[in-house]
Amino acid sequence: MPTSLRQMLPLPMLPADRQNRRLAGFLLVSVLLHALLLLVVRQPALLDFPAGEPNDAPISVRIERAPPPPRSAPVAPAEPRPAPKEKQEKPKPPVKRPPQARIKPLPKPSPVPAAPDVTPQPVPQPLPSEPPEQARTPPAADMSEMIAAARARREAQRAAETGNSEQAPTEPGKNDIALANINRDLQRASRKPVLTSGVFQIVNKGVRTAQVQFRGWDPASDATWRQTLDVDAGLNGDIDHAIVRRIIALIRTHHNADFNWQSHRLGRVIVLSARPQDNAALESFLMQEFFGG
């Protein structure tokens, strides 16, 4: 091949040169596309005019200022109303207080010593016997016997007045025997009653009812007996006072004046009175003995 023709033909391309060529072609195409887009966007918009009118007619535009808005009349500020004058109250004259009398403090009361607690003694209360020389009271005589004795006494007095002493028999007659019996009955009636001794014991006590046991003995005859007293205080009654009053009633069947009471609470013998006029003192003492109040 001649040398001139060899120089005109391109030499075979290497693989690296072929890739660079393709890349350069892509860049060139991209630049052209962007230039076309810029030309299209920057092209001025064409105005459509109606047929018959020249497109080159001048357009006159007049720009005027808008009229200013009407000024509103200035509103006068409202005058502030004067505040109502407060009524000035006249000062009240000071009230004169009467002078207060000084109160003297009362003297402190002296401390009252506390009363000792007295607990009821469950120990039975004995009634001590009186002197042994006093004879026992016989049972009350029947009315018919009293009448017969009075009749016999009158007959004896009448016989003594007649002075018929010379006719007195050697042996005692019927009138003498009757007179002796009458004198014996009168002597028995004139003797002092025997004062019974005994012990009281409360065996049962409820709200309304109670039972008191009395064990008595006769110092003259050494006779003993036991008696149970039923006590009923009634509706809303005081059972303690009812027990004491029942005991006093039993004491008065054997004592009508002073009697001795052996007090375990005081530790000595007390002389008490069973007389009706001393009932309040006797009842108060027995309340303390049995119930401590």
UniProtKB/TrEMBL annotation:
Residues 66-81, 106-131 have a biased composition (Pro residues). Residues 51-175 are annotated as: Disordered. Residues 82-92 have a biased composition (Basic and acidic residues). It comes from the Bacteria. This is Uncharacterized protein. It comes from Noviherbaspirillum galbum.
